[in-house]
């Protein structure tokens, strides 16, 4: 959307009314829907200055307690009230008040409860990880669904170095 707008505005001198809102909705969708993925891959920012010094079992107990005290109440509220918020937007067929294009935004507001539901599902998974760690004394491995390119290249380089050393 942004590349399209730049080309249309600066090359053809024909800027659009709708593209700014479209880009904002897409960025918002990415942000909302990435929460559960970030939780699953431990990509969230956390202040673990003291936490990392604890044994895994202690970490798991802390996580378990904090999930029930802070995480689940907040995320359930996000899903529940997000549903009401999105339902109202659908009912009135809400449009953007800040745009001259007045584009429809009620569909994007449906992502709020959807993100809440995905976070609840991932939170349940994290609770099970904590319980397993409490029982076994070590964290279960996470599935790697995506890796940074530089991590892949560094591991490949290390494997090649090992092969060359042999």
Describe the model.
Helices cover 69% and strands 0% of the residues. It has 166 residues and is an all-alpha fold. Helix 4 packs antiparallel against helix 6. The termini are far apart.
Strand and helix map with partners:
Elements: H1 2-11, H2 19-33, H3 35-40, H4 56-92, H5 106-109, H6 111-136, H7 149-165
Helix pairs in contact: 4-6
Compact summary:
The protein has helices at residues 2-11, 19-33, 35-40, 56-92, 106-109, 111-136, 149-165. 69% of the residues lie in helices and 0% in strands. The protein is built from seven helices and no strands.
- Give the strand tally: 0
Principal-axes geometry comes out as: flat
Which residues sit in consecutive blocks of at least 5 with pLDDT less than 50?
Answer: none
Write down the secondary-structure element order.
HHHHHHH
Number of discrete helical segments: 7
The helix/strand class is mainly alpha
- The end-to-end span amounts to 51 Å
What is the CA-atom radius of gyration, in angstroms?
A: 22 Å
Give the helix proportion (percent range). Answer: 55-70%
Mean pLDDT: 87
Strand content: under 5%
Largest sheet composition: none
């Amino acid at each position: 959307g942004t590349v399209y707008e730049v080309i249309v505005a600066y090359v053809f001198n024909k800027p659009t009314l709708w593209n700014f809102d479209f880009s904002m909705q897409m960025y918002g969708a990415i942000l909302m829907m990435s929460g559960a993925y970030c939780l699953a891959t431990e990509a969230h920012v956390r202040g673990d200055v003291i936490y990392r010094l604890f044994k895994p079992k202690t970490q798991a107990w802390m996580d378990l307690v904090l999930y029930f005290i802070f995480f689940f109440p907040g995320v359930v509220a996000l899903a529940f009230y997000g549903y009401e918020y999105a339902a109202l937007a659908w009912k009135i067929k809400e449009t953007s008040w800040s745009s001259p294009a007045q584009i429809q935004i009620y569909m994007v507001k449906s992502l709020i409860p959807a993100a809440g539901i995905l976070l609840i599902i991932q939170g349940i998974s994290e609770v099970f990880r904590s319980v397993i760690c409490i029982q076994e004394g070590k964290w279960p491995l996470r599935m790697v669904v995506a890796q940074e390119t530089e991590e892949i290249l560094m591991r490949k380089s290390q494997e090649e170095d090992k092969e060359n050393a042999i």
